[in-house]
Input
Amino acid sequence: LDPEEFRRQAHLVVDFIADYYSNIENYPVCSQVEPGYLTKTMPQSAPLQPAPIETILQDVQKHIIPGITHWQSPRFFGYFQSNGSTGNFLGEMLLTGFNSVGFNWLASPAATELEMLVMEWLLKLLQLPNSFSFSSSGGGVIHGSTCESFVCTLIAAREKRLQSGTKGDALGKLVVYCSDQTHFSLQKACQVVGISPHNVRSIQTKRSMNFQLSPDALLTAIEADVRAGLIPLYVCLTVGTTPTTAVDPLLTLSEVARRFGMWVHVDAAYAGSACICPEFRHFLDGVEGANSFSFNPHKWFLTTLDCCCLWVKDQSDLTKALSNDPELLKNKASETKKVVDYKNWQIALSRRFRAMKLWMVIRSYGVTGLQQVVRKHVKLAKHFEALLSADNRFEVVVPTNFATVCFRVAASDELDSNPLTQSLLESLNGSALVYMTHAVIEGVYVIRVAIGATLTEEKHVLMLWDMVQQHATHLLAKYIS
Ligand code: PLP
Output
């Protein structure tokens, strides 16, 4: 690596990215390419000779950008956003530049200590109970994804339960509980840790209860399993579910779970970021009853993939289940047991220096800047919700808790809402000017409008509203005639 040549090439890449952001609104939000498009244009074997950066960037412009769905577009309203920021991009550059592999403290003390520091900052910002802090028996770790946090906490819960004297074919008897709104990655995590899909109870929720998991329904399910000789292990509660951003009642649910000695995990992947604002913190009330809590800065915290923050109340639950002590890594610092070796808090050995980008984000925007981002998006979402509510052609299906609005074409005797709402979504997305996704809840097809891209402003939401009205007018005229 020649530093001067690196400087020259990196400047070209920064210019390229800056131009990409200047032009982002000129691209179709969702990529319009056909499957296999790239294999038709790219050489099928690796090039023998090196190419100059200028040529490579031309290829990126010509071949890669057409196949990109522009999640950073201000008119991207799909899934949940994965927003980014200047602070984050620069943090990514630094962490990639250092490319240090902080599997234990010695391998890169700054990587471990910055991660611990940032996790303690966030703990205070989210007003998490002190029991999740390093100053108590807990602590926080940055994983790549919520799915990884599910796997690690499930393994911790499993080992704790199996070590507590449970005999016989205990693994086959362990049961995991969640709601039918819980993110589907929990199912996969259960498969990974050896919990049979037959032993995952996906408890039905109701629209009349805003799709919250009911403590009574949880209790009924647990009691039935206990009567059948099964062992309740773990319940996943969600603050901000993926389909509708529902919030489970944490306090009562964790009280139910505690009666059976279960592990309680709170997944706030999307909505956790909002809880840094005092006015939204109440959504986390009851988190003190949980064994673990996670949220994804890579959704709504100006931080790009991959970044999931996980706290546990008792760090030894994780480290007992995930530690190893190979000769190759033995060192004096680890032997003192006074340092954190994060390899024992995760699946992989090697790990990225993710704290660098999260620290850069917090330093660059400050708490007030990050709160402003959340408040702006929530305000825009509330405005969009109000516009929909005032038009009797539409129905807002659940109250907007955060910045994701779920709506459909209002049902009537003459109109079957589901196909019409689906056609409306297809028609809007077909314009390539905006992009949204859908959910089906209690048989109802809804359009989800997730407002949270960093560049989204009021004008983009108003443009979306104009489009929704125009496309609906057109479709309804066709449907009725
Ligand atoms: N939990 C919730 C509530 C989510 O919305 C998502 C993704 O959207 C996930 C978990 C999965 O997150 P990850 O992709 O980090 O595993």
About this structure: The pocket of pyridoxal-5'-phosphate is lined by residues 80, 145-147, 183, 185, 238, 240-242, 267, 269-270, 296, 308 (CB under 6 Å). Residues 138 and 313 are 4 Å apart (CA to CA). The chain has 15 helices and eleven strands. The longest strand covers residues 231-238.
